[in-house]
């Protein structure tokens, strides 16, 4: 086993490699060793989790790994991923861990690590972790020869700290209107903090999928499935609906008519209004991934005179590009929205608050607010696989350049998911029927390789 990290930390089926109990303990000890090797004191780590059942398995394992290395551990319980960088800062911690499998269902879990500045681990650190764990001789060198272990504390007011910070991001000069809002919390980490926060701000809140039981996280709900949210918004004549994923770092919107608004449209909205308001927006560049729609890119370029910088899929790639060039707006079509003036990672609740702020200022209905451009037709297909080898990967990769299958002017992306055993196909073009036909031809080819 050499590959441990994917496009967003570590993620796999519970009790499978690289997250068996034994390997999880090794990962925690190794990360503590690498991040604190040059620190004179023992260090402090924040450990957070979402609501999935296996959190009870991994929280004590991760805790034990850090405590064995002499690190002080602060447990904060179920909270959204973006709360971790904030708590690292306010509690003067040296690192943070989020135990989550993000948008995946409860059968999965994972680990996201953050450094002392609230950024996700850089790829060079991830590679060092992998090398140490895959080499028994190297791993044996990270023991601490002392009887003194770390201590463990539980922070009771972590949710309040995060909530108050989110409120502080709102412009006090703007008088916010009160809206009827539906929140789909995906039975995940936002289930208490999001409804309470929007209620405290004076909105009428209808909360759905906010009763986690450990196994219903992301199940036919939240940012990965907004059908229930759309019906609830329309039937209750709500002004807008917000869907979060299991760990709260994604946001998908539903307008008052029940239409889905993805991350591209949210980024376009922020580009239009945050750039114009000069909220420390730099260089007139927005960062997104290869998944973003060409309609979005054309809108930025032609209407707003803003460039789109595309990266590989994964919010870590977006964040790295933003960090490298000191940019302040980026995200993914899937709903990760990074506003780096406020947070170093995607934050669904923060993005929702900013949308409400813009709705109040412009006095527009949600459908009008997001009516910015027309998407190019896209077709996405996910193909599950049990086994993968280099030969099949090469064949799949070659399909993206197959001119006999792909028409001129079409955009095709075929890739392996970095978070689950799926081959993802994206086809984009000007005509929907041709896009769908091409996508299904590619699907047939991929399945023939797997067979």
List the helices and strands and how they pair.
Elements: E1 10-13, H1 21-36, E2 44-49, H2 55-68, E3 72-78, H3 83-90, E4 95-99, E5 108-114, H4 123-134, H5 136-140, E6 152-154, H6 158-168, E7 180-184, H7 193-200, E8 204-208, H8 227-235, E9 240-244, E10 251-255, E11 260-261, H9 263-276, E12 285-289, H10 294-303, E13 307-311, H11 315-325, E14 329-331, E15 337-339, H12 348-362, H13 366-369, E16 378-384, H14 390-399, E17 411-416, E18 422-428, H15 432-450
Helix pairs in contact: 1-2, 1-4, 9-12, 14-15
Describe the structure.
The protein has helices at 21-36, 55-68, 83-90, 123-134, 136-140, 158-168, 193-200, 227-235, 263-276, 294-303, 315-325, 348-362, 366-369, 390-399, 432-450, and strands at residues 10-13, 44-49, 72-78, 95-99, 108-114, 152-154, 180-184, 204-208, 240-244, 251-255, 260-261, 285-289, 307-311, 329-331, 337-339, 378-384, 411-416, 422-428. It is 37% helix and 20% strand. The longest helix has 19 residues, at 432-450. The chain is globular, with a radius of gyration of 22 Å. α1 (21-36) crosses α2 and α1 (21-36) packs across α4. It contains 15 helices and 18 strands. It has 451 residues and is an alpha/beta fold. The strands form five sheets. A six-stranded mixed sheet has the order 1-5-4-2-3-6, with helices on both faces. A five-stranded mixed sheet has the order 8-7-9-10-11, sandwiched between helices. The two termini are 25 Å apart.
Keywords:
15 helices; globular; alpha/beta; five-stranded mixed beta sheet; 451 residues
């Amino acid at each position: 086993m050499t590959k441990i990290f994917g496009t967003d930390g570590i993620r796999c089926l519970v009790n499978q490699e690289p997250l068996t109990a034994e390997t999880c303990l090794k990962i925690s000890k190794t990360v503590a060793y690498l991040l604190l090797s040059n620190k004179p004191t023992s260090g402090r780590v924040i450990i957070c989790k979402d609501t999935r059942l296996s959190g009870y398995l991994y929280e004590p394992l991760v805790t034990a790994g850090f405590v064995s290395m002499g690190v002080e551990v602060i447990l904060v319980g179920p909270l959204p991923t973006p709360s971790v960088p904030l708590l690292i800062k306010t509690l003067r911690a040296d690192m943070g861990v989020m135990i989550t499998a993000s948008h995946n269902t409860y059968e999965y879990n994972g680990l996201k690590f953050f450094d002392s500045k609230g950024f996700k681990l850089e790829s060079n650190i991830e590679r060092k972790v992998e090398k140490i764990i895959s080499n028994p001789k190297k791993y044996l060198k990270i023991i601490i020869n002392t009887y003194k272990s770390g201590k463990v504390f539980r922070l009771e007011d972590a949710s309040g700290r995060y909530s108050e910070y989110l409120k502080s991001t709102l412009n006090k000069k703007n008088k916010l209107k009160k809206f009827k809002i539906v929140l789909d919390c995906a039975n995940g980490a936002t289930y208490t903090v999001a409804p309470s926060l929007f209620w405290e701000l004076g909105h009428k809140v209808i909360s759905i999928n906010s009763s986690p039981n450990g196994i219903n996280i992301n199940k036919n709900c939240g940012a990965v499935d907004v059908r229930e949210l759309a019906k609830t918004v329309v039937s209750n004549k709500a002004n807008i609906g917000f869907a979060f994923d299991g760990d709260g770092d994604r946001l998908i919107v539903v307008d008052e008519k029940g239409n889905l608004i993805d991350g591209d449209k949210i980024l376009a909205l922020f580009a239009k209004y945050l750039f114009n308001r000069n909220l420390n927006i730099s260089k007139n560049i927005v960062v997104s991934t290869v998944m973003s729609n060409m309609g979005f890119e054309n809108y930025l370029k032609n209407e707003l005179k803003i460039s789109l910088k595309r990266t590989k899929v994964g919010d870590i790639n977006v964040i790295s590009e933003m960090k490298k060039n000191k940019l302040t707006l980026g995200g993914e079509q899937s709903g990760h929205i990074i506003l780096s003036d406020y947070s170093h990672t995607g934050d669904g609740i923060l993005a929702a608050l900013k949308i409400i702020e813009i709705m109040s200022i412009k006095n527009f209905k949600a459908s009008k607010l997001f009516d910015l451009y027309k998407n190019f037709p896209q077709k996405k297909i996910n193909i599950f696989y049990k086994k993968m080898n280099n030969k099949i990967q090469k064949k799949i990769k070659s399909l993206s350049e197959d001119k006999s299958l792909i028409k001129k002017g079409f955009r095709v992306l075929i890739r392996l998911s970095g978070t689950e055993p799926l081959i993802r196909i994206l086809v984009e073009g000007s005509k929907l029927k041709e896009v769908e036909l091409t996508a299904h031809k590619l699907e047939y080819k991929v399945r023939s390789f797997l067979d």
